[in-house]
Structures are given as structure tokens and as C-alpha cells.
Amino acid sequence: MTQPSQIDHTCTTTERRNTRVILSITFMALITWGLAIAKWGLPALFLPAVCLVPILMFLLVLISRG
Questions:
Q1: Distance (Å, rounded) from C-alpha 4 to C-alpha 42?
Q2: What digits encode the pLDDT tens for the residues 42-57?
Q3: The domain containing residue 26 runs over which residues?
Q4: pLDDT in tens, 3-34
Q5: Burial, 33: exposed, middle or buried (Cβ in 10 Å; 0-12, 13-18, 19+)?
Q6: How far apart, in whole angstroms, are the C-alpha atoms of residue 23 and residue 35?
Q7: How far apart, in whole angstroms, are the C-alpha atoms of residue 44 and residue 25?
Q8: Looking at the 3D structure of the chain, how many domains does it have?
Q9: CA angle 35-50-46, nearest 5°?
Q10: Which of 50, 14, 44 is nearest to 29 (CA)?
Q11: Cβ(42)–Cβ(34) under 8 Å?
Q12: What is the pTM for the complete model shown?
């Protein structure tokens, strides 16, 4: 069995870059959503959920059909 001190936890530069890109996109989306809520109020709060309904319904049908 491998000792905990022998496990290599180093990340490559590609993994770090991909992580930064994903986190940056996520934070920018959240900031944009927050600004939209500040500008337009309640409709901007629930609009993303309403837009995701057709996509999630398609995914549920796709999963249930196998």
C-alpha cells in the first residue's frame, strides 16, 4: 500500500490553467447574474431557472429512455 507521504499531489500547468479558466468563467457568470439581479430585480433572479427547464427536461427524457 502506498504511504500518504509517497503520493504525488503535483499538478501540471495545463491542469492549473484549466482550473483557473473554469473558476474564472464561474465567477464571471455569478457576478453577471448578481449585477442583473441588482439592475432588474426578481425577474433576473429566476430567469436562469426558467431558461434551463427545456434543457433539463431533454436530459431527463434522454436518461429515462436509456
A1: 49
A2: 999 999 899 999 999 9
A3: 4-65
A4: 666 776 677 889 999 999 999 999 999 999 99
A5: middle
A6: 18
A7: 19
A8: 1
A9: 35
A10: 44
A11: no
A12: 0.64
